[in-house]
Design brief:
4 helices; protein yfey like fold; alpha+beta; 12 strands; 33% strand; single chain; eight-stranded antiparallel sheet; 23% helix
Length: 168
């Protein structure tokens, strides 16, 4: 009886675990490359390149290219070049981004998964999302890797977005 209980607990534990490899196989859309972006939407690309090669549905508004149907935004600079790419998993009114980083971090990844994949961050921050933010009252934890050009934001311990930035 004890053996059966141990075997049952072990089996249930294994079923509840999702490895990074399993996450890679469940997404077939985009790969996020730190310091670069995603296919046809990269840092340094022109607005024209993004709209002609990535999506004609990108909407320009207040310094951003918006594509809520794919869970994607991009900011651009005064020269009309992509400055940052925002990939949203949990932003209200946006479809969840379908993709993972080149190290397997995706929608269901934890803070510990990020540490394991990317190591010690350049900086971390904690705050509470204001009443005017996307998730009022949520605990926000940000993990930044400046040298790689990637940032992860968690709301209440769930990955909310990945930002691709210029490495420094």
């Amino acid at each position: 009886m004890l053996r059966l209980m141990l075997l049952l607990c072990f089996t249930l534990n294994l079923l509840g675990c999702t490895s990074v490899v399993d996450q890679k196989q469940s997404y077939d859309s985009y790969t996020i490359t730190p310091g670069v972006g995603i296919e046809n939407l990269s840092l340094g690309d022109s607005i024209e390149h993004a709209t002609s090669n990535f999506s004609k549905d990108l909407v320009m508004k207040d310094g951003y290219l918006l594509l809520p149907t794919k869970g994607i935004d991009a900011s651009y600079n005064n020269e009309g070049k992509i400055a940052a790419v925002f990939l949203y998993y949990r932003l209200p009114k946006y479809k969840s981004f379908e993709g993972i980083t080149d190290k397997g971090i995706g929608k269901n990844s934890s803070i510990q998964d990020v540490y394991k994949a990317y190591g010690t961050p350049t900086r971390e921050g904690d705050s509470v999302v204001s009443e005017f933010g996307a998730m009022p009252g949520a605990h926000e934890h940000t993990i930044t890797y400046l040298h790689s050009g990637i940032e992860f934001t968690f709301w209440d311990k769930k990955l909310a977005d990945v930002r691709v930035i210029s490495p420094r």
